[in-house]
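Whether sequence alone determines local backbone shape is best considered at the level of individual chains. The sequence in question and its structure tokens are set out directly beneath this paragraph.

***
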Amino acid sequence: MGSSEVDMSVEFQNLTGDVISRAAFGSNFDEGRLIFLLQKEQGRLFLQSQMKINFPLLRFLPTKVNKRMKHINREVGSLPTRIIEKREKFIRAGDHKDNLLSLFLKSNLNEVEVNKNSGAGMSMADVIEECKLVYFTGQEITTNLLTLSMIVLNMHNEWQERAREEVLQVSGNNQPDYDDLNGLKMVNMILLEVMRPYPSTSLIRCTKRETKLGNMSLPEKVQLFMSFYLVHRDKEQ
């Protein structure tokens, strides 16, 4: 048999998208999966638009990319609304299936019931944004971590063998369950170590008012970007 290269990043994107869809939406898996695919396309189009020569009015022009991005934005807004409304009806009817969305909605509905006149609880728009956040951050960060872990393990075959031996010792040829995961001490250690030199995310913050940061004075509404990749390699920190 011959050999061929496999793009593990794509494979892990599909894997994490499937896992998050099932864990977050349960029986609404297909609709959840569609949200994942649309957000993935939206991210690709955004990066594509950022790489082109930019001027202030470009994003308002009816270009093919801009029209597609607006369409995706409407879809990503309407799909969670339908899923949430459907899930709320099931919950009010006594359906107690536990997935992330159900648990989130139950907690929010209880908060509204307990504090009827105080404006407590989250609005539909807030719930939708939380769902989108779970999808985008959870899928992207986990995909990056798994991909980088495969690269690092390929660079250090002895640790790859140790991790494989631990998995076989804990789970054998069976599919790992939740209790098995707690026994994978070395695998957990490897993942944590990969995140140290190769962090999967960065820190982005926006100043709400004039802020003093060290010897710098930052005005209101300045966006700050911190690369954990550089911070973890700074020998003076």
